[in-house]
Automatic annotation (TrEMBL):
It comes from the Eukaryota. This is FBXL4 protein. One of its GO terms (cellular component) is SCF ubiquitin ligase complex. The gene is Fbxl4. It comes from Herpetotheres cachinnans (Laughing falcon). GO terms for biological process: SCF-dependent proteasomal ubiquitin-dependent protein catabolic process. The keyword Nucleus does not apply. Keywords: Leucine-rich repeat, Ubl conjugation pathway. Residues 276-331 form the F-box domain. Coiled coil: none annotated. CDD domains: F-box_FBXL4.
Amino acid sequence: MSPVFPMLTVLSMFYYMCLRRRARTATRGEMNSRRAIESNTRALPINVEIVQYAKEVLDFSSHYGSENSMSYTMWNLAGIPNVYPSSGDFTQTAVFRTYGTWWDRCPSARLPFKRTPPTFCSQDYVELAFEEPVYPTAVHILETYHPGAVVRILACSANPYSQNPPAEVRWEILWSEAPTKVNGPQARQFTPCIKQINFPTNLIRLEVNSSLLDYYTELDAVVLHGVKERPVLSLKTSMIDMDDIDEDEDEEKYGCGMDTLNKQFSIVTLREWPTNGYFDKLPYELIQLILSHLTVPDLCRLAQTCKLLYQHCCDPLQYIHLSLQPYWARINDTSLEYLQSRCTLIQWLNLSWTGNRGAISVSGFSRFLKVCGSELVRLELSCGHFLNETCLEVITEMCPNLQELNLSSCDKIPPQAFNHIAKVASLKRLILYRTKVEQTALLSILNFCSELQHLSLGSCVMIEDYDLIASMMGAKSKKLRSLDLWRCKNITESGIAELASGCQLLEELDLGWCPTLQSSTGCFTNLARKLPNLQKLFLTANRSVCDTDIEELAANCTHLQQLDILGTRMVSPASLRKLLESCKDLSLLDVSFCSQIDNRVVLELNANFPNVFIKKSFTQ
């Protein structure tokens, strides 16, 4: 045979691959041109594009606002725009709880999990339901303040309004990109080029990373464009149908194929080689060290190559710290079952965002912890909506060494279930942000968990008397270093006095949006005098904070690094200068909406104290 023919075969394969990639990465203009060609030639029926705003907000990981109002909450993403195209800080927008890197530089910051793939950088998410399932052709995100936080857009095969739950829930990434710095806080319409998918959807998920932002990002609305019938490309356009595209490459790149990951976890028939080459000459410990740099999917792939590497990749020492959050879309009961034999020595486990919509069952979670829970020290379960009272009971029984428990935004756990946490006397960190924990359960936890160092009770709206809670903390939680009381509605100067007297090791205190605290009672000066180790103090939206409070902080809390006094009308530039001169470590000062601090003052302070990030928000 002539050598020309193999070359032609190679060229044809290369051309076919190019077509596949072109079909995957087709631009918005190409999709519009396809519709125009199909309409003009009448080769295919006209497929009218549907444009719709989000009908409902189904789920989210955090928000700046209160659970009992609409200001700064994720629920503002439902419906038509409230603010766009205006720019600035508006209460009618959706705002996440954090921004920048400040939360990673305070006493309550948690150590990151190793082996997190570099492609996963999401910090928060929100899920939106639309009226009509469509094949997406475009997604418009209306950002009104400090844009640039969205890093992933996903589509789900499940219809949230269907009466019949699907046999399989599939997530497909429409667009993904690393965080980028956007110049300027002005409003914009963000329309990334999205990938075509082979199923209709009316459930869209946005994932954000706010680490590069100078302030909170604000989102106003999301617009989904799509067609009811799956786009079939005309042969006259020299393009191919999406049915002909193998999706293995996409699943490997984006990690949303649940079957693919489970196949990697499963045991396969391994070929046995007479020798293992240079690996036979390496110490066992050195091979383990090399493999410790691989992500979990890569470790599972490597385990399928030969028996020697299978032994190394399945060694429980490789799974001492395990984060499954980056793979939330494809973790289910089968995944946990495959991992059981490898996780018998696990100490840190991150299952945040996993298991929703029936992917993980109570029995599957319980079976896993009964085998793998004895050595657990840290357990991350934020936004785990499969969790119920049985799960908390299993955690407290199977994890006797547990020191850190994160139940942030687990709002489906019934109030009575939190009583079980009191059995874990070794707890040092407990995050109950946006949960339904009640007063009785919390008092029991504080009474029996005297080792607590970090406690988050932000947006816990079912606690009736925060003064009683603060009094119990002062009596029992002597080791407390950080306390989050964000948006607690009824704490008074009495509770603050008990807290400051008993918890004198406090380094971080968040009293943002606590309207019952008044500076005239002396509560803030008392804090400054009793808590000299304070590094972070948030008094957000307390309009009564005054010069006396700032001067007491300057005199007593010289280690202060972060201070938020947004919204006060009583603080003058002179007291801020004293604070900045005294607190040499101060790096963040939020004076947004402080009526006496205008832009001229901020510019002057920035010039004299260049190491401090002084934030002044605005509304147009």
